[in-house]
Design a protein that fits this description.
This protein is largely without helices or strands. Strands 1-2 form a two-stranded antiparallel ribbon.
C-alpha cells in the first residue's frame, strides 16, 4: 500500500492538473507554471514586458 509523501517535490502537486513539475508555491498558489500561464490573468496577475 503506497504511503503519502511527507517531504520533497513528490509531496507538492498542482491543484489543477496534479503534476509535480514546476509547481509555484509563492503566495500559497500551488499550481504548476503551465496552469499559471493559462489562468494567471483570471486570478488577478498582470503581465509585465
Amino acid at each position: 500500500m503506497p504511503q503519502s509523501k511527507k517531504y520533497g517535490k513528490g509531496q507538492r502537486e498542482c491543484r489543477r492538473c496534479h503534476t509535480h513539475r514546476g509547481v509555484i508555491r509563492r503566495y500559497g498558489l500551488y499550481i504548476c507554471r503551465r496552469c499559471f500561464y493559462e489562468i494567471g490573468k483570471e486570478i488577478g496577475f498582470r503581465r509585465y514586458e
